[in-house]
Each structure stands twice: as C-alpha cells, then as structure tokens.
Design goal:
The chain is mainly alpha-helical. The protein has a domain of about 90 residues. It has a two-stranded antiparallel ribbon with strand order 1-2. A hairpin with a 6-residue loop joins strand 1 and strand 2. Helix 1 packs antiparallel against helix 2 and helix 2 runs antiparallel to helix 3. The radius of gyration is 17 Å and the shape is globular.
C-alpha cells in the first residue's frame, strides 16, 4: 500500500500559539523544527557537529548549551536567508538578529568550542554564497 505525500511544515520565526481555554493568541519563538525541512537538517547537523566536539559524550550542561546553540544557529540562519534574498529586516528583526548572533558566539565560547571564529566565518561565507545564487 503506497503512502500519501508527507509534507513538512514550514518553520516560521514567530509562531502563533493558542493556549487551551485562552482566547488570546500569543506570538512566540520557534516552537519546534520539523526535521524534514532544510532548517531541520541544518539544526540536526549543527547539533551533531557540536556533540562530536565532546567525543560524542557531552555532560548534561554541555548538552543543554548545545541545544541552545543549535536553536540560535537556526534562528540566525532564517534571518540570514531573509537578508540574502534582498528583503529588509525591520527594527525588531535587526535587534533580535544582533542579540542572537552575540548569544550564539557567547554560547560557543562557554562550550569552549575550538573554532568559534571558524564557525562564524563559515556562516558568513554561506550567507554570502546564498546571496550570489
């Protein structure tokens, strides 16, 4: 029996959450990332690379920081794509982008990742390459 199409849900930077019993709709950050999307694969690969920095056995605290760094990386990638496509960021997105980039750098430094500068440089090169396509 053939299965039907399995469509992945697009990841949005701001998700609308409607809590049960609440009439108000809250706008929150990324609630979850669908692993079938491009961003989901990037998220998983970035997490895997950071875990490999700890020989595959990070402590609980390191694992928590790795999760945080991977989510920050995805958020920055979403805004990188928006910039690369030629769209402008509004003031709120600009402020969030700057905060997330700095938080990502600090989180990687807390993890004592050897090549923080190389990782951030690779991100910049990838953004530039996407802009040229």
């Amino acid at each position: 029996m053939a299965a039907g199409p399995n469509f992945a849900k697009k990841t949005h930077l701001w998700s609308k959450l409607n809590m049960p019993g609440d009439n108000k709709i809250d706008r929150r950050g990324i609630a979850n990332i669908d692993g079938r999307t491009k961003l989901g694969r990037i998220h998983r690969a970035f997490k895997r690379a950071l875990i490999e920095e700890f020989k595959g056995k990070p402590s609980t605290i390191e694992r928590s920081l790795i999760e945080r760094a991977a989510m920050l990386h995805v958020k920055c990638m979403m805004l990188d794509e928006k910039i690369a496509s030629g769209r402008d960021l509004n003031e709120m997105e600009t402020n969030h982008y700057l905060a997330w980039i700095n938080a990502l750098g600090r989180t990687l430094m807390r993890l004592r990742v050897r090549d923080v500068d190389d990782i951030l440089r690779m991100r910049a090169k990838a953004s530039y390459a996407r802009a040229l396509r």
